[in-house]
Design a protein that fits this description.
alpha/beta; Gyrase A, domain 2; Four Helix Bundle (Hemerythrin (Met), subunit A); Rossmann fold; flat
Amino acid sequence: MTIYALSSGIGVSGIAVVRISGAETKKIISGLTDKPFPTPRFATLKKVNNSNKTGLIDEGIIIWYPGPNSYTGEDMAEIQVHGSRAVLKALLDAISNFKNCRMAEPGEFTKLALKNGKINLLKAESIGDLISSETDLQMKQALKVIAGKNLKKFETWREDVLKVLSNIEAKIDFPDEDLPKEILNDIKKKTDNIIREMEASLQDNKVGQIIRDGFKIAIIGPPNVGKSSLLNYLSNRDVAIVSEIAGTTRDVIETHLNINGYPVIISDTAGIREAKDEIEKKGIKLSLKKADEADLNIIIIEAKSKENRGFLDKYINEKTLLVVNKIDKESDIISSDLKKLNPILVSIKNQKNIDVLINLIKEKIKSRFLGSENVLITRARHRENLEDCLKNLKKFKNKNDINDFDKAAEDLRLATRSLGKITGKVDVEEILDTIFNDFCIGK
């Protein structure tokens, strides 16, 4: 089946790119344009007509990529036309009239490239990450993976595990033969080295995943203490409704920010208190869930609130910045118990000490991204498979020590399979739909 889609952004634009891939591509281009047929990989100016050539759609650039030397590995073409809605509708309608031709699904062009061996699974994922990157840090991480640096490490581990497996299988095939001492020593040394390297890679504070997904900050506290006001201030726009009526925020409100080049997601949450109705209960439940998932919680309270003591005992921890808001007057006295917690005293309304709070937030974010240059794991999927691999390697080591070679070999096979799932060396059909659903249509 031949697929087609708009690959450039949706909306009115100077230029729009429509991509086609599949066995019918050449027939489609011939059916939409007059002879001669475009030279491969040369931009050719052509009049683009409707499918029966009875009317002109536009004049544009055709680039023809005969397979297998194309992005997808199939016959492929790109049609560049003016980006008006009318032109695009006419062009897409014209292509749809050809037999065995349908609109592409999200990420299907890249999925074809993966299945046809043009790219590996890590690169496929990172193309999606590059397209959705919002900060320089996200862009650089995606480009590093696309360049193959992460793949090389995973492949090296897989090759080393396979070498150990070949030695173990040799022992199983020839049980009466003793493995040379140097091979036994090499098996132990190589296994210990792989385990040590994997453990070090997993102790990365999930920096790669945070770069990809964003550093999560949750603003929590009792009702009507200034949570929404702080979100609006940090966002430099009115994201949330601000009211003196307690309980105005019932749901979680999120905004994506670029703070000093770091991707940040800030969530304003419902005020935490004894809920008065079912809707508020659900809002508070969501607030607590966001606080649990966050990399940093900003707890906002008022100095004289009676709810402070119980609230602080319950929610203050190592990933918390405590903010006392509404310090507008000298009469706003901070208790000695509260002072022990080193709160940041602010007045969001009067913009007092907000710069101090923002600098502390920046420090917290920066400290979490230390070591981001050498990150290996960028997705939860990678981490889960690497943890499975490590678990099986440790099982192998224990069985190998007691000469239980048959079961030890199976542990090694499972370890190589886990690494293969990361790079796409094994059948990973069950995870492809999840990965490519994140892509835009046309990529």
